[in-house]
Amino acid sequence: MGIFKRLRDLTVASINDLLDRAEDPVKMLNQFLRDMEQDIIEAEAAVAKQIAVEKKFKMQYEEAEELVSKREAQALKALEQGNEDLARRALQDKKDHQTRFEEMQKQYTIAKENADRLRAQLNEMKNEYGKMKNKRDLLIARAEAAKAQKSINRAMSGFNSDSASKGFDRMSEKVLQMEAEAQASQSLRDSSRSLDDELSKLGSNEIEDELAALKAKLQDKKAE
């Protein structure tokens, strides 16, 4: 598997396709991010190695460059002292270091280009990872909402509104019957009380009794 395989995969399969295939989208999304994290760790290690190679070649070409300048100065000093053979050998060594300098400089350029490219890819992976984390949060919210809707739909499918409505109608009729019976009972009681009142009035009339008493008193007075 290539170091940047996950980055390439992102251009092939979208997160929405992953959701369609996943039995548990939340777990799959978290696993997907963990895979990306692992790829980023591997990529960081690869970039670190390439940077080390870049620095190595840079150090080598700088050392060779320094020796080229040093040997030229030494050759000149040897000539000044009349030692042509030493100057010749210094120039030969300068040539060897010049060749090495050119080769190391070339390798350094290639290594730096590779390191820069890997650094750019690593940054792209990290940016993509950040985007995926944000998308993960949104998709998890959507998944939770879908689960809630599914639960409600499942509950509603077992909710027999017709049966409940019929049951309420029966209970309503029963309550009406109870109210009617209560009203009938009250009417009978009221009727019974009315009859008792009338009968009690027949047996007692205070005004008439008092009037009769006055008449008797008047009659007694006349008899005197």
Please summarize what this structure is.
It is built from six helices and no strands.
Any overview of this molecule?
- Residues 190-200 have a biased composition (Basic and acidic residues).
- It comes from Paenibacillus residui.
- Residues 26-142 form a coiled coil.
- Residues 157-201 are annotated as: Disordered.
- This is PspA/IM30 family protein.
- The chain is mainly alpha-helical and 224 residues long.
- It folds into two domains: 5-159, Helix Hairpins, CATH 1.10.287; 165-223.
- Helices cover 91% and strands 0% of the residues.
- It contains six helices and no strands.
- The N and C termini lie far apart (148 Å).
- The model has no long low-confidence stretch (mean pLDDT 80).
- The first-to-last residue Cα distance is 148 Å
Q: Name the shape in a single word.
A: rod-shaped
The tally of beta strands, per DSSP, is 0
Per CATH, the architecture of the largest domain is: Orthogonal Bundle
The count of helical stretches stands at 6
Features:
224 residues; mainly alpha; Helix Hairpins; rod-shaped
Give the SSE map.
Blueprint: H1 5-10, H2 15-21, H3 25-80, H4 84-157, H5 161-203, H6 206-223
